[in-house]
Structure formats: C-alpha cells, structure tokens
Design goal:
It is a single chain. This protein is an alpha/beta fold and 514 residues long. 33% of the residues lie in helices and 21% in strands. The mean pLDDT is 93. It contains 15 helices and 17 strands. The protein is globular. Bound molecules: 6-O-phosphono-beta-D-glucopyranose.
C-alpha cells in the first residue's frame, strides 16, 4: 500500500494550552539548550502553545546580554518571520551557579520580567530546566530551595517544576542518594526527569496503538508472540563526550533509561487510565517482573562490545580507543546486546532481545514484534513453518511509522502467496508540512501542563538501577562471569557473539539494510 493512501478518519485532540509560566534554563549557552530546547520552545510558540505571557530566561556562566544571546541562538533556529517576536520573550542572565547571590538576582529578575509581561504572580508557574552536568544538580537545587525559588503554595498554584536530564546516578546507591538529596528541597510532583525517547512520536504511539485498538491486545502475549526485539543503533561514536561516555559506558547511557522505558511501554499491563501514575505504576510493575540476571549465565545473556576502526557509508572511522580523550586501554563498552525474560502470565517464556551500539551501519531505533508461525497450514504442500510469520515493526526513528507484515495472495490465476509489508510513515500524513515535532516540544509542553506521564518517577529509576547494578558490579569485579568486551568493526551490527545469542534460540536480529 502506498503511504499516501493512509488517511485520518475523525480524531480527537487532547492538546491543552498551558497557563502563563516562566522557563528558566540553566546551561543556556550549552549544546542541548541551543540545539534542542530553545528551538523546541520556538516551535511551541509558532503553534500557539506558549502562553502570550510566558517568558524564557537563559542562565549560564558566560557573560552576555539579551541581545548577544539572541544573536547566538539565531543560527540554531534559522531565520523566520516570527523570530523577533519570539526573541522579545527571551532573556539572559549570567552568574555562578554555586553563588547564593546569583539566585537572589535571578529571583528579582524573574519578578521584573513577569511584571513586564503582565503575568499574574498568583498563577504564573515556573520551570527550572537543569541542562547541565548532573554533578551540579545538588548544588543548584539546594540554592534554588534556599532562595525560595522552588517553594510552592500548598494549593500547588503557582507551581514550581524542575526538569533534570539523565544521568540520575551511576548505580543504585548513587541514584538513591541523589534522590534523597533532591527531596530535601522538592516534592516528587515537582521533579520532571526527562527521557527524551518518551517524547518521540512512535514511542508515545505505543500506548495509543495498544490501548485504543481492539485488534492488538488479544494477541499481545506469549500465546501469539514468539519474541520481541528492541534496537537502538547509532552511526555516531562518542563525539565530544569522551569524558562522560568513557566513565558511563553504553549500558548506563542507553539501557538504564531509553531501552528499559521502551520495553516497559511495549510489555506493561493495561493501566486503569491514562493518568500519569496509572501508567507509571504499570511500567514499574513490569520492571519488577524482569527476571534478574544469573551471574553464572551472564556472559551468554549480555554481550558487550567496543568498536574498532572501520568504515561507515564509505567514511573511515577510528576505533573507540583512538578517539580523542579515550584512554588507549579503555574497556568501556560501546555496544550491548541483552536477552531477558519477563516473569509474568503475559510473557512467560517469550525472549526479549535488546541491543544498542555506537558506530553501527545506520541510525535506527525500532521495536520488532515477531509473532508465532500459524499452528497448521491448509495450503499443502506448504507447511506452517514455510509461511513467514507476521511481524509488526514500530519504527521509532529516523522514519517514524509502523510496518506490518502479513501473508497475502499474489494477484493472478494461480494460488501464489507471500509476505506483504504494509508500510506506514507518519511523515505521509502530516497535513501542514510542519514536520515531525521534536521530542522536547512535547516534553516541555507536558511540564508546563503539569503532566508527568512521560517523565520518569523515582521508583522506576531505582528499579532500573536494581536490575543493572549487579551486572555492572560483575563487569567491574568478576572478569570470568562478565565475559570479554568483544571488538566489532565500526560500520557493523556489533560483535558476532551478539548475532549468536538469539541464533541459539533460532531467532535472528532484524538488521535494516537500506
Ligand atoms: C542520549 C545518549 O541519551 O541519547 C547519547 O546519552 C545518544 O549517547 C542519544 O547518542 C541518542 O538519542 P537520539 O534521539 O539521537 O536517538
């Protein structure tokens, strides 16, 4: 079916406009703020979703005034007629994040800016976005608290929200400590822990697909599903983040958050409603049902790899150990493949294969649901196992959409059949030509609306770490049970051991070739 033939029929829009609020971005001159956050706010503004009394205040250490900050951002947003009006809502302040005086000045400046915007202080919310290394979280949150900036009226209006980017600790203990520290100043409903994968269209669509349709839920279980694969592959290496990445490694960087979050959404039970905590309760329950890894079989269930020199799309790439800032003897993993089981009624015996890696042949994130073969073939001499089983692919990126493979008769007088792929791409149904919204647009809007559904709760973080910390511990202390860090050439789908892992179950990764 050509993608242009997909059409909406009817529809409900649950989009709500936020109350006036002021967004303060710490780390405002950094990469994330310039490349993602401010452009996302600009797009919300263009779609009429930034309240006319909302203002943005960038904070960073670099001395700049409002005008030079706006000039810096111009190249990231690109020229647009609306830019000057948007920029009139954007301010800048510089200072030292550890200095209480900076927060006193910030407090005064926010009052001034909101007064100029004619925003009623009794209802104007404030967001503090900490777009900076997590080592600074405790200091900044402490200072915000001491200066009264995060204090909320008991009624919750006006609200004060704090957005944090991962990493939330580097193991169970450090995550718990960070959480305890944050809770000295903030209540859980004020903390918005971002996982940008949850803002991606296809990831959000998992909930709609599963719980707003009748046809998927009856087959979404061990009776009909043979295995599920989640792949997050990237072409990039460590880029300019050598220091962070080499001490974190891929398991912390991608599994603790993005991959386990996607797994929870795909595998969780049906929540009682779409309320944030209903969904988050089910995600937590799912994480608690993951079978802990057995150290005796750890090296078979989890394969680690590190890229060596190779070539991607004709461009030579150096090996991980040759990247600037990476120690030449680093053992840090840049690839992980994992096989796990979920011990509950729904998923009994269904293997989940998860993998993620840097310097792979292409950038792709997808979830592949492989259904079981039909139980019996009436199309003799074809046997049941001769017919390709159904496959549902949720393409998270780069081409968001769905692919469903079914058996179908080929047109013609003879009975010939084969696997037919129905390929739907979101881009084909965007009517206004605006392009797919960036994940940060949705997440910033949700924070303005006080909706924590797509943000991660502290207990979920803790459970994710409970699952991964023993693995990290084995890797760090027990070479025998950990197994080797297998080399793989840049531009390949990871080490051979990662192909062998599902192959032992007679399952093969779906590797995209074009
Ligand atoms: C980040 C990781 O969370 O996600 C990066 O820290 C990774 O290492 C990035 O490159 C991938 O995000 P995306 O949206 O490009 O798939």
């Amino acid at each position: 079916m050509a993608s242009g033939e997909y059409r909406w029929r009817g529809g409900f829009c649950l989009e709500v406009k936020p109350v006036p609020n002021t967004i303060v971005i710490f780390g405002a001159s950094g990469d994330l703020a310039c490349r993602k956050l401010i452009p996302a706010l600009f797009h919300l503004y263009k779609r009429g979703l930034l309240h006319e009394k909302s203002r943005i205040v960038g904070c960073a250490r670099t001395p700049m005034d409002d005008i030079s900050y706006r000039t810096l951002l111009r190249k990231w947003i690109g020229e647009s007629e609306e830019l000057d009006d948007f920029f009139s809502r954007l301010h800048y302040m510089h200072g030292d994040y550890a200095d209480p005086e900076f927060y006193r000045r910030l407090s005064g400046r926010l009052d001034e800016i909101e007064q100029e915007a004619d925003a009623d202080p009794a209802i104007t919310g404030r967001i503090f976005y900490l777009s900076m290394p997590s080592a600074l979280y405790e200091t900044i949150v402490d200072r915000l608290g001491e200066s009264g900036l995060t204090a909320e009226d008991p009624s919750g209006v006006p609200w004060r929200h704090v957005i944090l980017e991962k990493p939330f600790g580097r193991d169970l203990d450090s995550a718990r400590q960070l959480d305890l520290h944050l809770h000295k100043t903030l209540q859980e409903h004020q903390i918005y822990r971002i996982d940008h994968y949850l803002g991606k269209e296809t990831v959000q669509n998992i909930l709609v697909l599963r719980f707003a349709n009748t046809i998927f839920e009856p087959v979404w279980n061990a009776r009909y599903i043979d295995n599920i694969q989640i792949t997050v592959a990237e072409i990039v290496g460590v880029e300019h983040r050598a220091g962070y990445f080499d001490s974190a490694g891929l398991l912390r960087d991608m599994f603790q958050n993005h991959i386990l979050e996607m797994l929870s959404l795909v595998a969780m039970e049906i929540p009682s409603s779409s309320a944030a905590d209903s969904i988050r309760d089910e995600k937590l329950k799912l994480l608690k049902s993951i079978r802990p890894f057995d150290r005796k079989t750890l090296a078979e269930s989890i394969i680690r790899g590190q890229y060596t020199a190779g070539e991607i799309n004709g461009t030579p790439c150096s090996g991980y150990r040759g990247e600037p800032g990476i120690p030449p003897d680093s053992e840090t993993e840049t690839f992980v493949a994992m096989r796990l089981f979920i011990d509950n009624w729904r998923w009994r015996g269904v293997p989940f294969y998860l993998r993620s890696g840097k310097r792979m042949p292409r950038k792709t994130s997808n979830i592949v649901i492989n259904f079981k073969p039909i139980p019996h073939s009436i199309f003799s001499p074809l046997k049941a196992e001769d017919l390709t089983p159904n496959q549902l692919i949720l393409n998270v990126q780069p081409q968001e959409g769905l692919t469903l493979t079914i058996q179908a008769k080929q047109p013609g007088p003879k009975l010939c059949m084969g696997a037919l792929s129905m390929d739907f791409k979101y881009a084909s149904i965007l009517e206004d030509g605006s392009g797919m919204p960036d994940a940060y647009e949705r997440l910033l809007l949700d924070c303005m609306l006080g909706d924590q559904t797509l943000f991660i709760r502290n207990d979920t973080i803790e459970y994710a770490w409970s699952l991964l910390t023993p693995i990290l511990h084995e890797w760090e202390t027990n070479a025998e049970s950990a197994g080797p860090v297998y080399p793989y050439a840049a531009g390949t789908w990871g080490p051979k051991a990662a192909e062998d892992m599902p192959a032992r179950d007679n399952v093969f990764w779906r590797n995209e070739t074009n």
